[in-house]
Design brief:
It is built from four helices and seven strands; from the N terminus they run αβββαββαββα. With 159 residues, it is α+β, with helices and mostly antiparallel strands. A three-stranded mixed beta sheet has the order 3-4-5. Strands 1-2 form a two-stranded antiparallel sheet. Strands 6-7 form a two-stranded antiparallel ribbon. Strand 1 and strand 2 form a beta hairpin. The termini are far apart.
């Protein structure tokens, strides 16, 4: 019986994560079978709701899929006692996949921001560092971030 409860908890966790992601990607839903746990999103998500913590296993599973698809992958982990607030769940992502995302968000910063650099956007109300990246039109050139990711994977970037 305990195994069935864990299995149902895992299925419920997938639905909770899909619902949370659907606030941004309207079509996000649970995928069944082998492959992505959440479908209709532009990345690969592996959802886990286990008592044991095995990040290397999650990374290997994602890497096997994303090396074929080319998508960024991450694991969402519901830890014991977290309830059903997906915003509080932990994530596991390879640093090589995280770096291009950080460059897109913080690449405009040439030095560590100070308290004086942090402000609220007068248009959307989001916190920003020097300029708002939330309400600006999506004109960010992802090509640079992708080339940095490829350089890191090829080990051709200077350290």
């Amino acid at each position: 019986m305990a195994n069935q409860a864990r299995k149902h908890r895992g299925f419920r966790t997938e639905r909770v994560v899909a619902q949370y992601l659907s606030t941004v990607w309207a079509g996000a839903c649970v995928g069944r079978g082998s492959g992505k746990d959440i479908v209709n999103v532009p990345f690969d998500v592996e959802v886990k709701a286990r008592a044991g913590f095995q990040p290397l296993a999650y990374i290997k599973q994602l890497k096997a899929r994303t090396s074929i698809s080319g998508e960024i992958g991450f694991g969402v982990i519901r830890l014991n006692g977290q309830g059903e607030d997906a915003a509080e769940y932990a994530c596991v992502i390879r640093l090589a996949d995280l770096l291009p995302l950080l460059i897109l968000k913080y690449g405009h910063l040439d030095s560590e921001p100070t308290d004086a650099d942090i402000d609220r956007c007068t248009a959307c109300g989001s916190y920003m560092i020097r300029k708002c990246l939330t309400c600006q039109p999506m004109i960010t050139d992802a090509t640079n971030a992708i080339s940095v990711k490829k350089s890191l994977m090829d080990s051709t970037i200077d350290q």
